[in-house]
Every structure is written in structure tokens, then in C-alpha cells.
Amino acid sequence: MRVSRLMLVTLRDDPAEAEITSHKLLLRAGYMRRLAPGIFAYLPLLWRVLQKISAIIREEMAEVDALETLLPQLQPADLWRRSGRWDGYTAGEGIMFHLIDRQERAMGLGPTHEEVVTELAADLLRSYRQLPVCLYQIQTKFRDEIRPRFGLMRGREFIMKDAYSFHADEACLRRTYAAMDGAYRRIFERCGLRAVAVEADSGAIGGSASQEFMVTAEAGEDLILASPDGRYAANQERAVSLPPPAVPLEVEGLRTLATPGQTSIEELCAAHGFDPTQTVKVLLLLARFAAAPARAVLVCLRGDQQLNEVKLANAVTARCPDAGALLEIGPLLPDHLAGGLAGGVPFGSVGPHLEDALLPKGEASGAGPVLRLADSSAAELEAFVCGANREGEHLVGARWGELCPLPEVVDLRAAQPGDRCLHDPFQRLEAARGIEVGHIFQLGRKYSEALEARFTDETGREEPLWMGCYGIGVSRLAAAAVEQHHDADGIRWPLAIAPYAVIIVIASSQDPVQVALAERLYGDLGRAGIDVLLDDRPERAGVKFKDADLIGIPWRLVVGRSAAEGRVELVDRSGGGGRQDLSAEEALERLLRLHA
Ligand code: ATP
Ligand code: MG
User: Fold this and answer.
1) Label partner for 2 (CA 20 to 30 A): which of 301, 318, 415, 477?
2) Measured from the CB, is residue 160 less than 6 Å from ligand 1?
3) Which bound ligand lies closest to the C-alpha atom of 159?
4) pLDDT digits over 151-174, tens only?
5) Cα–Cα dist 138/477, whole Å
6) Do residues 217 and 321 both lie within one domain?
7) Domain check: are 175 and 302 in the same one?
8) Does 510 fall in a domain?
9) Three-state SS at 333
10) Is 203 close to ligand 1, i.e. is its CB under 6 Å away?
11) Does ligand 1 come within 6 angstroms of the Cβ of 155?
């Protein structure tokens, strides 16, 4: 391809809209343009990158016997109602774009395809003899993200590879899951990415085991916690660890302490010399559901610990099976109680023994008893300091069982860097930022049960299908590659996913000798199947060199003054910038070897 025909418009300065490197560079180097928040036009250079990534994915999907398909993006609401996800995906913070068609039917634009593919399976898969089956597609997904940002990283319209597998039993699902794990590792490696597999939360997709693949990069939105010995790595959303040991509270009996104006753990500890690990803090929250009134949630955590909201949302969802989707969970505010807690109990003085009756009126009293949960960090304290449910007072020496029954114990705390690991307390969790490029799930039978996708097993019995699903953010992967491969001058694409392998720069397009040699090399490389660009623009050499660096083509072949002697310069942009003065034939030979 000739650069003069490429519609290439590069920008000297960083666009104001871009915050992270990949976003800036992809805009500056003419790979994409923004149409609306989170919606981008993929220009020809980027499309080539996406095609190369897709080609690698297709090869590796073929290796695990997955079949390519293409499923509808417009999906009927009824299907999503049957799986129970319509409300969760459309109301509250739901991310599905949805519309009413001319027949007054509600439809959604596919954010993911579990429903559609399970419906197909229900229709097509009848017998264990047809199993296992794995389908995948590479397609635009739509998600009305709450915070679209960072360019391709979090788009509202983006390209995903999503695969779905169907099995007669769980063992078979596990085998395919393991095979996908291998395929994913190969895909990321072949794309030139350093990616790590981490334990992940299964989120709104549901199911049991799930694993994310993270490209480590400063710009990553996710926090990975990993042990130095490499045996444990998890997304912080899901990570578990041992909290620091608590300082024992040496007191006899229970006493009341005057704590005027001390409503935070810090104030309380500063005023009375307690250690935060000796306290229990109580969080009052309100959970809103699609199909049930809101419910108050009381969470007890050790005073020095932080709540993990993802774990909490999972715990609440699991305990309210008939409430429909959990739409939102946030702090309980006086307004939710028509004015506050009964008896004028201030929120800062609430203790674990707060009675349901103190939440008398308003939204929070709608759905039955307060859901009470305690993290094990709080549950394990023998004696502790906590709010007294009275203004300006705390209790010292409170004990579970005496103060109130121990609430149901659930892991709710956020693991932190520096925490000791469960598998080996001598290992401490280290933090790294990551970009989630892939996610694989063992879905189990959640969707097949909901959508009645059954098969007949060897004994003639009807059973729901076992399912797995496997996603890769194709467009996000391209951005992640730029995050890992760039320098001050621009992108440095890994060869396997570069839009072109070689760019030939004619230093002076006025010089017929240079032009002739460049054209010859361009023809030879192209005929040999090498993706080659020829920068034939009538620009100054400096401008062309800068653009070549910016767009990040791995090899640059400069045809300049020494063309008269048949010599050229070969610059290795991706491999560290080494340059060599070679005869045109030697350079050609080197580049042809790229394909060998
Ligand atoms: P995230 O936590 O980043 O929102 P997710 O858990 O919603 O991701 P999945 O539903 O598992 O993601 O989607 C599969 C893959 O699609 C992700 O691993 C990611 O690479 C990609 N992806 C998800 N959301 C977006 C988005 N808004 N823009 C670009 N890629 C995305
Ligand atoms: Mg998401």
C-alpha cells in the first residue's frame, strides 16, 4: 500500500480527549477517530491490526475445535426475561442498549450472547451424541458503559470474540475450559502480549469457576493481587488473603464509653488509644432489586478492613434468590428511612446489635428482615469495641453471642497488597495493574436450566446442557498491545499484529534513483507476501521518519542518498531501534526471512 493513498492524518499533539498512552497514540497515529463517547471508527490501519489479531484467534479456535458463527445483535427482550437478565441489564446501572420496535416489541442490542446461543442449543442439540460443541464469533458488542473511557479500552461499541461450549457433563466442560485456557495463553503470546491468568469474579454472567487474562500495564483499570511465588493471582474483586493479626482487646466485661462526636474509627481510636483491629464497624446499606422491594443490609467488618463491594453484591444476590436482579447496592441514607433510625440513633453510632425495629419506616423496611452479614475478620474477634446504638456512645468489650447473635459469616473484605496469602502466610500479596483482555467461565447449567436447553443422555434421561463461555476483547487487546509496546516516538507493534511489517521510506521523492529503487523493493516484498507500505508522499524525509515511528511499523527501510550505490538503511523499530546500512539485496533477504 502507498502511504499517499492511505488517508493518513497524523497529529503532532496529544488530543485533549485522550488520557492514556494507547488512546493518545492510536488517535495521533491515524488508527481511529471518535464519533461519540465510546464509539470509534476503526480506520484502515487499525482494521488491519484487528484482522491480524482475529486471524490468530481463528487459528487457535480451530485448534480447540471451535466453530465460527455469527449470531444476531438485535435480541428480543423475552429471551432475556426468560434467563432473568433483562431487568438487570436494562434498569438501574444496566448496560444494555434497548429499544422498542415498530411492533411495540422490546429488543436489546447484544452486550453478550449467552441467551441467543442457549436458545439455539435448545433447538439444535438433542442428544449426547452431538456433544461437545463449541461455537464462537468475532463481532461488535454494544454496552452502554457507565464510564466509557480510554479509547478502545472501554468502548460502548467494541469488538469481541465470544465462544460458548455445550457438554453432556461437567468433566467435559472442564476439559474444554482447560483447552481454552491453553488457547488463550497461545493467543496472547502470539500477539506479543505479556498476559497473566488470574482468578476472577464471575459477575453478571454467572456460573462457577472463572479466570481472567490480564495484560500487565500501568494504565490497567484492574488491580491484580499475586503472590511472589507465582502460586496465587487474583483480581482484587475476588482476591482472598489473611488480614493482619488483630491486637487483642484486654478487657473484662462490657462497659459503655462516652465518645462524643467520634463517629469514625480513626476518631474513636485516636481519642481512646484503641487499635482499629479492636473495633467492629457496621455498614448500613440498601439493596435494590428488580422484582422485590429494597432490603436493608447490615455488614460488620473489622475496623481496619475495607468492604469489597463485588463480594457483597454476590453475597446479597445469593441470599435473595427470588428478588430478581440486584440493581444497586449503596449506603443506606436517612431519606430511605423517612428521616433516620428510630430513637434518633445516628448512623455513626450504629452497632451490630441494631434491631430491625429501629429501621421503622420508608423504603428500607419494605422487604422483610435486615440482611445481616459479618466478615470473618469481625467474626473472629473475641471482644471488640463497637457503636452503642446511642448518640455519642460506644461499647467496649462486646462479644458475639452476648451482644447479639453472630451474623452469617461471609468473606466480604477487600484483600490488600501486603496481606499474607492463604496458601502460605510467609508470602505477601503484591499488586500490579492489569488490563482484562480475556475471561473464561464455567457457566454450569444456569442458562440451560433457565432456557430449557436439554439433551438426552446415554440412559435416555433429559438433562440440561453444561455450558462454558469464553471472551476476548479484540479491540481492547489492540489497545493493550500499544500500552505494552510503545516509546516516546510512538507505537512499536509486535510483528504478528502490526498493520504492515515493513515501511519503505523514500527520503526524497524528487530523486528518480531513490524512487526507482524503492519501487523495486516495494514490488519484490509485496510479491513475496510481505505486508509492505511505501511512503511515497512528497514530504520532507524528517516528517516521514516521524510518521513511520509514530504508526509503529516494525521494520523501516530507508531509501536515501546511498540509493545511487544500491544501499539502504534498515531500522528495527520493534526490536530496539538498531539500524544497519545494507545493500538493497541484503536488506531484501533479511525482510524475506521474516516470513520464513
Ligand atoms: P470489564 O470488567 O472490563 O467491564 P467484563 O467483565 O464486563 O469486563 P466480559 O463480559 O467478560 O467483560 O467480556 C469479555 C471481554 O470483552 C473482556 O475480557 C474484555 O476484554 C472485553 N470488554 C468488555 N467490556 C469492554 C468494553 N466496554 N470495551 C472494550 N472491551 C471490552
Ligand atoms: Mg464490563
Assistant:
1) 477
2) yes
3) 1
4) 999 999 999 999 999 999 999 999
5) 13
6) no
7) no
8) yes
9) coil
10) yes
11) yes
Of 222, 476, 482, the residue with max ligand 1 atoms within 8 A of its CB, to mutate for a pocket test, comes to 476
Residue of 202, 439, 474 to test ligand 1 pocket, by largest number of atoms within 8 Å of CB: 439
- Could you tell me if the CB of 207 is within 6 A of ligand 1? no
Residue range(s) defining the domain that contains residue 323: 255-409
Phi and psi, residue 353, nearest 5°: -90, 15
User: Is 473 close to ligand 1, i.e. is its CB under 6 Å away?
Assistant: yes
Average pLDDT over residues 233-249: 94
Do 516 and 584 lie in one domain? The reply is: yes
pLDDT confidence band for 241 (50 / 70 / 90): very high
CATH number, residue 337: 3.90.960.10
437 lines ligand 1 (CB under 6 A): yes
Closest CA to 587 of 515, 530, 511, 512: 530
Q: Note whether 207 and 287 are same-domain residues.
A: no
- With a cut of 90, say whether residue 201 has pLDDT above it: no
Phi then psi dihedrals of residue 396, to 5 deg? -120, 130
Among the atoms of ligand 1, which is closest to the Cα of residue 221?
A: 3
Q: Which atom of ligand 1 is nearest to the CA of 143?
A: 27
Mind listing the pLDDT tens digit for each residue in 82-110? 999 999 899 888 999 999 999 999 999 99
CA distance 525 to 429: 50
Q: Is 441 found in the same domain as 520?
A: no
374 and 232, same domain (yes or no) = no
214 and 307 assigned to the same domain: no
Q: Which ligand is nearest to the CA of 161?
A: 1
- In the three-class reduction of DSSP (H, G, I as helix; E, B as strand; rest coil), residue 272 is classed as helix
Amino acid identity, position 398: A
Q: How far is the CA of 548 from the centre of ligand 2 (A)?
A: 35
Nearest alpha carbon, ligand 1 atom 29: 154
Considering every ligand atom, which ligand is closest to the CA of 138? 1
Number of domains comprising the chain: 3
What is the whole-number distance in angstroms between the Cα of residue 390 and the centre of ligand 2?
42
Q: Confirm or reject: Cβ of 438 under 6 Å from ligand 1.
A: yes
pLDDT confidence of 20, banded at 50, 70, 90? very high
Instruction: Provide mean pLDDT across the span 187-191.
Output: 98
> What's the grid cell of residue 133?
460443541
| Buried-exposed string 5-32: b where 16+ CB fall within 10 A, e elsewhere | ebebeeeeeeeeebebbbbbbbbbbbbb
Closest ligand to 148 CA?
A: 1
Check whether 595 has a pLDDT greater than 80. Answer: no
C-alpha angle 394/330/317, rounded to 5°? 110
Output the residue whose Cα is nearest ligand 1's atom 12.
439
pTM higher than the cut 0.85: yes
Reported as a single tens digit per residue, the pLDDT across 48-94 is 999 999 999 999 999 999 999 999 999 999 999 999 999 989 988 89
466, part of any domain: yes
Per-position b or e across 170-186, b if 16+ CB within 10 A of its CB: eebbeebbebbbebbbe
Distance 494 CA to ligand 2 centre (A): 27
Burial class of residue 426, CB neighbours in 10 A (0-12, 13-18, 19+):
exposed
